[in-house]
Structures are given as C-alpha cells and as structure tokens.
Write a structure and sequence with these properties.
GO terms for molecular function: asparaginyl-tRNA synthase (glutamine-hydrolyzing) activity; ATP binding; glutaminyl-tRNA synthase (glutamine-hydrolyzing) activity. It is built from 15 helices and 16 strands. The strands form four sheets. It has a nine-stranded mixed sheet. Strands 5-4-15 form a three-stranded antiparallel sheet, with no helix packed on it. Strands 3-16 form a two-stranded antiparallel sheet. The longest helix has 20 residues. It starts with 6 loop residues before the first strand and ends with a helix. Helices cover 39% and strands 20% of the residues.
Length: 482
C-alpha cells in the first residue's frame, strides 16, 4: 500500500526568488552569477565592523510588482528585522529579513487540478538578503569532509514567498510551483534560472489520517531547485513518514536535506521556531512607507500574466492545450505574439511554433530568444504556404535551411527552385501525360473508385519533383477525368 491509501498529505512551500537587480540589496556589489570566489563582495555584504546598509529601491519595486502579480495586499508600512542564527555562510551571524511586517500579505494564485481550478493561498512575501554558498568537498553536505565558503551570493536580494498549507497532492505542489515560477518569470522579477539557484524551494509536508484528524508533525526539506527534484523528494518523504506512523512511531519536526544521487531525504537538524531566531527590528534601516501612488505606478508596469495570456490565445481560436504549451514558456509566448503580428492565422502559426521550430531549437539546445529564425521570418514562410507558393512538405525543408543559414524563406525558395507549381497551364500537360500513362486508374475512377485519385496525385507530384500544388492537382484531375 502507498501512503495515500491511509493518509492525507498537507503541504506548504516557501519559494526563495533571487530578484533581477544589477546590484545587491544593501550595497553596490554586482549580483552577476559566477565569478571567482569571494570577488563580488565589499565590507557591507561581508558584515565588517563599522559599515551601514543602504536599501536598494529597485528591490522594493520588484517586491511590490511580485505582490501585485500574486494578488497580495501591499503593506503601507513595512520594516526589516534581524534573524539571528549562526552558520558559516552568514558573515554577520544574522540575516536581514522581514518578520512581523512583510511587504506583501494575503495573496493567492489559481492552479488547475484534476477536480478543476483550486486557489492556493499565499500567506506572505517578504524581502531579505541571500546567504553565501558552501562549496562542499564531496557530493553533498552529509558526505563531505570539508566545505569552503563563497560569499559572492551574500546580499543578493531575495523575495521569500510563503504559501498556505493548501496543497494535498504531489501534482498540486508541482502545479503551484510551475504557476508561481511562470508568474515571476513573466513579471521579470527574476531570471528564474533554477540551475543557477535563482529559484529555490523549501517544502513543508506532513501526513494526517484519511478524512480528518489533527494535522501531523511536519518536516521541512530545504533548497530544492527543480520540479523533478521536488516530485522525487515528496515521493520519498511521504513514504518515509507513512512508514514511521505505520510502525507506531512519531514523525520528528526537523529540517532535512534531499540527496539527489541516493534519492532520499536525510536529517540535518531539529526545526527551529520563530522565537529561536530572536527576531528584532533592524536598527540600521528605516521603515518603508509605501504610498498608494507608488503601488499604482508599479501596477502600470505589470505585463500580461500567464492566465490572461492563455485566455487571450483561446479567444483567438487556439485550443486550451495549445495555449498552455505556448504560455508555459515566456520566450515562446513572446515569439508567438511577435510572429502573429505578421501572420494572421493563429492555429497554423501555433502548429509550427510548438512543432517543427520547437523541435529544431530543442535539438540544438537553444532557446526561443536565440532562435536563428526570427518571428517575422517564420511568418514570411507561413505566408508562402498560405499563398500556395510552397507546400507544407517543402516548408519543412525550407525551415531547416533557414535555421542553419539565417537566410529568408524567399531567398531559399528562389535559390533551390522550390517554388510550388500553382499554374494550371503548366500542370495541364503533366496531368494529361499521367492520365494517358494510367488508363486503368482512369477507368476505376469513372467506375466510382474515388480512392484511386490519391495514386494519380502521387504520380503528378513525382513528375513535378514534389513542386506541384497538391490541392490544385487533385481538383484538376477530377475535372479532367469527369
């Protein structure tokens, strides 16, 4: 039996998002990823004696923008606090964060579940500084003999988004995270490069008896950085907790880590409560007063968010599935809209964007933003198909050539002689020859065997090396045999 035969899961997620500012939250050091260890640092982010922080206004702008995108209330009065704990990657021995007066509260997003749309609450979103990074000698912290510390990431601005414990299945957790990251990406709050640690997930999960009962003791699994890791981690942790409960034991409230290689969670430390951090107001930073004009000015900069974009694409005639595929990637959605300005058939455009062009990009490990085929270039090629200048089959060859060379569809068609023959006069003699060479097929057609038309069209296409307009050939064959 699996855990879900006996228990219900309850899950909430804390998502840490590195905000897309050029400089850190309290100093002028770069937030650029990478660089030689401990070179993107200064006395402020290293926490040296005698320095004072200065708040980066763009951090507040992005926090407000994220809050609006997540349907949050934006606080008129907000402040920073010191979260005190000792860890090698925290040079000040406290983290400047927000505790009782966060910048954003009481938000929500909607996710699609097997039972329909479900609203997931967002308790709060608050600003804080990132810590440094431990560079372990082994695969993970639990298998390492030593660790070095790189403080380049220290002071990079974070937005911590805390969900309500509203998720009751692994699929709901993944749907929530995918939707949240999409919104953050669309609103340009972060570059959302999970492989670089720009978005990290802390999962709080517990089990309770089927159908009710008190909430179980939760564990927190920290620093997951991919949807697949979250899924595998939850699959393991839920079975682990169920085994403990089935044997009459008690789940311990603790912080655990996910070992990707071994496919299991491992205990790190007992879970701290808020009072363990001895929060107190940050004396070196003024409170933040946010007037409504500031909020409304930020609201004007919000782009079209994923749900609204999906609805618009469906209103243009796309299926919900196609609209979902296109909007799943902001880059693909932007590319699609740019191409749509030059080619007005959304369905045909969607087929090529999500089909052949996506396949080419994937095969070359490239993103839509770096596509050698520009949106207007794809639109030109599709216009040539719609106008009968080339066939769909020819277009596949043309697209590959466009991708490889950067040439336009018109240049390739002209250079390779790929133009589709749509001139009835030019086709008449070829069709007459095909009919004369296949009298038995003509008789079968006249006797009512319509399927033979496919064979005759194929013969004409063969004679024209695939350049005849198949729709026109089909019509002319029927007319001439009748």
């Amino acid at each position: 039996m699996g855990w879900n035969d006996t228990y219900d899961m309850v899950c909430g997620v804390e998502v840490h998002v590195e905000m897309a500012t050029k400089t850190k939250i309290f100093c002028g050091c770069t937030t650029e990823f990478g660089g030689e260890e401990n070179t993107h640092v200064c006395p402020v982010c290293l926490g040296l004696p005698g320095v004072l922080p200065v708040l980066n206004r763009e951090v507040v702008n992005l926090a407000i923008k994220a809050g609006l995108a997540l349907n949050c209330q934006i606080a008129e009065y907000s402040k920073f606090d010191r979260k005190n704990y000792y860890y090698p990657d925290l040079p000040k021995n406290y983290q400047t964060s927000q505790y009782d007066l966060p910048v954003c509260q009481d938000g929500w997003i909607e996710i699609e579940t097997s039972g329909g749309m479900k609203r997931i609450g967002i308790i709060r979103a608050h600003m804080e500084e990132d810590a440094g990074k431990l560079v372990h000698s082994g695969e993970t912290i639990t298998t390492s003999a030593s660790s070095n510390v790189d403080y380049n990431r220290t002071g990079v601005p974070l937005l911590e988004i805390v969900s309500a414990p509203d998720m009751n299945s692994i699929d709901e957790v993944i749907a929530y995270l995918e939707s949240l990251v999409q919104i953050i990406d669309y609103a340009a709050i972060s570059d959302c490069r999970m492989e670089q640690g720009s978005v990290r997930f802390d999962i709080n999960v517990s089990l309770k008896p089927h159908g009710g009962g008190e909430l179980g003791i939760r564990t927190e699994i920290k620093n997951l950085n991919s949807f697949s890791s979250v899924r595998r981690c939850l699959e393991y942790e839920l079975e682990r907790q169920a085994d403990v409960l089935d044997e009459g034991g008690a789940v311990i409230q603790e912080t655990r880590t996910w070992d990707e290689g071994r496919g299991m969670t491992l205990s790190l430390r007992s879970k701290e409560e808020a009072h363990d951090y001895r929060y107190f107001p940050e004396p070196d930073l003024m409170p933040i007063v946010i007037d409504r004009e500031w909020v409304e000015n930020i609201r004007q900069t919000l782009p079209e968010l994923p749900a609204a974009r999906r609805a618009r694409l469906v209103s243009l005639g796309l299926s919900a599935y196609d609209a979902g595929v296109i909007t799943a990637s902001r880059e693909m959605a932007v590319y699609f809209d740019q191409a749509l300005r030059h080619f007005a058939d959304p369905k045909m455009l969607a087929n090529w964007v999500t089909g052949d062009l996506s396949a080419l990009l994937k095969a070359n490990n490239a993103a839509f933003a770096a596509s050698p085929v520009a949106p207007e270039g794809l639109a030109e090629m599709l216009s040539m198909i719609a106008g009968g200048e080339i066939s769909g089959k020819m277009a596949k060859e043309v697209l590959q050539e466009m991708y490889a060379t950067g040439k336009t569809a018109g240049e390739i068609v002209q250079a390779k002689g790929l133009a589709q023959i749509s001139d009835e006069g030019a086709l008449t003699r070829i069709i007459e020859n095909v009919l004369a060479a296949n009298p038995k097929s003509v008789e079968e057609f006249k006797a009512g065997k319509d399927k033979v038309i496919g064979f005759l069209v194929g013969q004409v296409m063969k004679e024209t090396k695939g350049q005849a307009n198949p729709g026109l050939v089909n019509k002319m064959l029927k007319d001439m045999m009748s």
